[in-house]
Amino acid sequence: MSFAEVDKLFDTENVQSGYDTLKKRFDEGEKTPDVLWRLAKFCQQLSARSKDKGKRK
To answer: What domain of life (predicted)?
Structure first.
């Protein structure tokens, strides 16, 4: 999935899918600033949406 496609998932119901895609790329060794920045952005969005206070930390 391209960065443009992943970016479209941000602020939608599919935030988890975008996170999973980026996490897979990271785990496979792609540790570029583009991946890291987007991964942090998706982590923040997921934590903001979580109702579980433990996960929000």
So the answer is: Eukaryota
Could you tell me if 34 and 6 are in contact, meaning their C-beta atoms sit under 8 angstroms apart?
A: no
The interaxial angle of helices 15-27 and 33-49, nearest 10 deg, is: 140
**Total-model pTM:** 0.82
Length of the chain, in residues? 57
Q: Which residue bears the tokens 């109702």?
A: 51
Residue 5 token pair: 């496609």
Query: Which two three-digit tokens encode residue 49?
Result: 């949406």
Tokens of 16: 């988890």
With a CB cutoff of 8 Å and minimum separation 6, the contacts of 57 are 47
